[in-house]
Amino acid sequence: MQRRRFLKQGLRVAMGTAAFSTLGLGLGGCGFQLRGYGEPLPVLPALALSGADGEFMSAVRKALTRAGTRIDDQAALRLNLGRASISETDPGLPGAGSRDIDLTLTAPFSVQRQATDAYLLDQQTLDVSERISVNDNELLAQDDARRAARKSLHEAAARQLLERLRPLAEQ
What is the pTM of this model? Predict the structure, then answer.
């Protein structure tokens, strides 16, 4: 009796997988593609950077340079970066051994025309989150995990910023 039930359940899973695969192949075969996926980001030719130096500023500088944007103080547009802040939310109990911590980076930014100081993007905010697992018995590993998560958050926020700048490059 249990063998029949097991076989029926296996058959259902196999049929569901086959149906899902067929749907995926059908969409791929007809030329379906997510909008913007796999396309290079439009590039702003040049951009002036303004803001406090730090990890976030260097991550943004690297991301812009990698995307082909020249950093130039005389550029037509100026990207103003506010101070990025990282907050921690620890829903677990201290001393409970292994627990998860949510890290959230928040960074304000705006984009202005240098000639007129008119805002193209005013008072925008980037928000990026990551969850890390820490163990109270391994303090050094906990510091390493936090350091890696902070670096990852800065890089993710820089990528999100490039996506937000995309409409300006398309104009």
Answer: 0.70
